[in-house]
Design brief:
Helices cover 30% and strands 20% of the residues. By secondary structure, the chain is an alpha+beta fold. Strands 5, 6, 8, 13 and 15 form a five-stranded antiparallel beta sheet that branches.
């Protein structure tokens, strides 16, 4: 009997232990759930809301202050617009000369302040006419929308009673026919359009006389600076008379007479650059290999000089065949060369037409 009672008590204790464990798990889950609903930082939400409210209500930069600034700027803009004066209608010029125009002042004759009130109206008109005359000199170009660039209209607009210029006088120009050897636009035009009755003007451009009874010519407005820029855009030469030269290809240069390399050589003649050909290099010279080409070290150098005798920064020798161009001049007056003993080869100057 006591044994059964002991077993019953043990069973009850085991049940109580299980219930207690379950209650601990439930309490733990309940505690975590309540903790998740709490703020990680006490009063953070309340603090952020308070700060936002303070910012919105600030008298210096809050919403009310921003609206007041916008209203003030709007008022200032509207006032500035309202202050703009109405457009001024210029006084109409009379169809006939008004009385007293020969001796009366310009302001009194036309009834408007022209800035020359103390001068006679006739003097004012003469000045205006002279201004027009100066702008209409025979070689002053007028770019006409009726023809394509580089055609321009040249003529004297002050000649009374002459016929208007006629369309269809010009020829279509093909820039693809320009060669590197065409030193000027006139060279190109005479070569490609030999049957056109060209007239040469004092600035070197060519033109065609208008067929009407007038003073007008249709000119090809390619003076030397624009001509060089056009050739450069076509890959045929330097961009202007002030640019250093660029290699246009072997067909675009004129080669000079080769000169043997020595320890000191000077070649004096106009040139755009030189071609170096090394035939023998002293033993023991280091080199870098560019694929199958050797670039040697410390063989010598060259410097181009100007017509004033000033030298450029030197350029070092390297490859067995190498191209050197003038860097700071359109054309050099010559070149000076230094070379180590035992270096053999030639220097060939060239020009770009």
């Amino acid at each position: 009997m006591l044994l059964l009672l002991e077993q019953a008590v043990n069973l009850v204790l085991r049940v109580l232990g299980i219930v207690t464990g379950i209650q601990s798990v439930v309490n733990a889950i309940s505690g975590n759930t309540e903790k998740a609903a709490q703020e990680t930082t006490p009063f953070k939400i309340q603090t952020d809301a308070f700060n936002a409210e303070q910012t919105v209500d600030n008298v210096f930069y809050g919403n009310a202050a921003i609206k007041a600034a916008i209203d003030a700027n709007q008022t200032a803009v509207l006032a500035a617009i309202a202050a703009i004066p109405p457009p001024i209608t210029p006084p109409p010029f009379p169809t006939t000369f008004p009385p007293g125009w020969g001796a009366g002042t310009a302001s009194s004759v036309w009834g408007s302040q022209l800035g020359v009130g103390m001068l006679p109206a006739s003097q004012y008109l003469l000045w205006t006419a002279w201004n027009a005359r100066f702008r209409s000199e025979i070689e002053e170009p007028i770019f006409s929308p009726q023809v394509d660039y580089p055609w321009v209209l040249l003529g004297d607009y002050t000649v009374d009673g002459q016929q208007d210029p006629a369309l269809g006088t010009t020829v279509t120009l093909d820039f693809s026919t320009i060669l590197a050897s065409d030193a000027t636009s006139a060279d190109w035009l005479f070569r490609v359009y030999p049957t056109t009755p060209w007239t040469t003007f004092t600035n070197g451009i060519l033109g065609v006389a208008d067929p009407g009874a007038n003073t007008f010519f249709w000119g090809v407005w390619l003076p030397q600076d624009l001509w060089l820029e056009l050739k450069a855009s076509l890959g045929l030469g330097p961009g202007s008379a002030h640019d250093p030269p660029l290699w246009p290809g072997l067909a675009g240069v004129t080669l000079g007479t080769p000169v043997a390399i020595a320890t000191g050589v000077t070649i004096t003649s106009p040139m755009a650059g030189v071609l170096i050909l090394l035939s023998s290099v002293p033993l023991g010279r280091g080199s870098y290999l560019f694929d199958d080409k050797h670039s040697y070290l410390n063989l010598g150098a060259l410097t181009f000089f100007s017509d004033n005798g000033d030298e450029e920064h030197p350029q070092n020798f390297g490859f067995e065949t190498e191209l050197y161009l003038v860097k700071t001049m359109a054309v050099a007056a010559g070149v000076k060369v230094r070379a180590v003993p035992g270096l053999a080869g030639t220097i060939t100057p060239f020009t770009i037409p």
